[in-house]
Amino acid sequence: MAATDEIIVAHRSGGGAEKLGTKSVAERPQPAVRKIHVLWGKKLGQSGSTGKTPLLQLRALVERVREAPGVQLYDAVEAGVPTDVVKMIARATGEPASVIMGLAGVSQTTFVRNEAANKPLPDVAGHRIMAYLRLLATLRRMLDESGDPEQMKTFDLEGWFARWVHEKLPELGDKTPADMLRNPEGQRAVEQVLERMRGGLAA
């Protein structure tokens, strides 16, 4: 079609056509372009796009989360957590993407639909992913403060955490840490469990 599209409707009686109106392509409403918050970086889902492996991308993101003030974390979640973050976490930890989607509380159908439309995760899923990253940041801080630096070099922190969040813990009423990411109170309860484990994580 030309730059200006015409809407034509045939008359039922005479077989003629009536022009109902024209609308310039430029005048059509365009989908809003949603800016990615600086915290998330760019193209996290593709390791080659940044020159970093998914594991290094995850560590860099966790470090940004660790250093960012609370208001910036709030703004990052409000702006929307990109679907690429889920894929990057999955690649970095070796977990299937479906497991990380489950942790975020988002169905594969919704995830694929949002990814295709270049839309961020639903709000609740975004909050859970941020909680996951904040717990990783808390864990990294604790290990930096009390762990053996030499031991830390070989300790697979991300892999350990990815498995640990799916373990049922008596301290959490036989719930998993992943279950507790649903609200801030649960997140604080998981942080308290990690604090009590301080010093014994990399043994």
TrEMBL record:
<feature type="domain" description="Antitoxin Xre/MbcA/ParS-like toxin-binding">
    <location>
        <begin position="158"/>
        <end position="200"/>
    </location>
</feature>
<dbReference type="Pfam" id="PF09722">
    <property type="entry name" value="Xre_MbcA_ParS_C"/>
</dbReference>
<dbReference type="InterPro" id="IPR024467">
    <property type="entry name" value="Xre/MbcA/ParS-like_toxin-bd"/>
</dbReference>
<protein>
    <submittedName>
        <fullName>Antitoxin Xre/MbcA/ParS toxin-binding domain-containing protein</fullName>
    </submittedName>
</protein>
